[in-house]
Amino acid sequence: MDHQYLQSYEMSWGTLGTVRPFSNFHPERDVMEIQMALEKNDSLTIVRILTNRNNPQRQAIAKTFEEITQKDLVTALKKALSGDLEYLMSDLMMPPAQYEAHRLQRAMAGIGTDEETLLEILCTRSGERLREIREMYNNSYRKDLEQELKAETSREFLKLVVALLNKENVTGYVQRDIESLSTSVNANKVNAKPWINILTSRDSRHLKKVLMGLELEHGQTMVQILEKKFTGDIEIGLKVLVQCIQDPYTYLAKRLASMKTSVLQGIMVSHCEEDLLCIRAAYLKYTGISLYTALQRHFSGHHLQALLTICRSED
After folding, report:
1. CA-CA distance, 27 to 50, in Å (whole number)?
2. What is the mean pLDDT of the segment spanning 286-295?
3. Whole-angstrom Cα distance, residue 276 to residue 149?
């Protein structure tokens, strides 16, 4: 699946997601079917309905379910389902910003921090989207997301994640930014500040030109440059950020290749209505097999059926 095909696909369907609005949508009918499925422990019917409706339609189903039954649909799903399938159906029922806020909260909960998930969300989402996620986080958990990030991280890495959370597009000059980063690279002791300032405050088209210019000037890839000059969490953070600037779909495909359930579900649910087709194409190129086939090799049962429906098809 090449980029030209993807562009024509987007023009035809209006989306690069795999889950689209169900054309013959009647929430009352869906609620009746779900009620019967819950009574009979028919998880396959629940999967069929919820994975074939987009998020606004799922929200309409939840609202209608509550109006008819005076019960919360997510609570009912949790009682009827179990394991990974329960988590997947619950994830699908969250509005997008709420789900990303939930993933961030889960990444910081308990002992230790899941830095990779923090970076994935902060690096791949726009400043506008992150402001929505931050507001949702603050309202849902009665805590300020920036303060929570500060409590979970430290030093230069802390500065990076805070800058990412507050990212904005500031006009810059490509050559001037190349010179600024090059000066940092050539110094005896590298300074992370210009990297953080520039990489979190320019649009992706501008930054791609800057990174390409830096690679040409030094005769090395960005990964080589960063590995040579940085260590620890700030090295990891800058490498993820650079990968997401250069090719976010390949970065996400690499994350999917771990086949770790929480990572895989997080990405598939977050991107299934936006750009999962692009991630699928990158996955095929990176691994040599389709995401659809990989799912069949690692998962089973109704959980597998739900994942395959979200994935939609072979590439």
Report:
1. 11
2. 98
3. 28
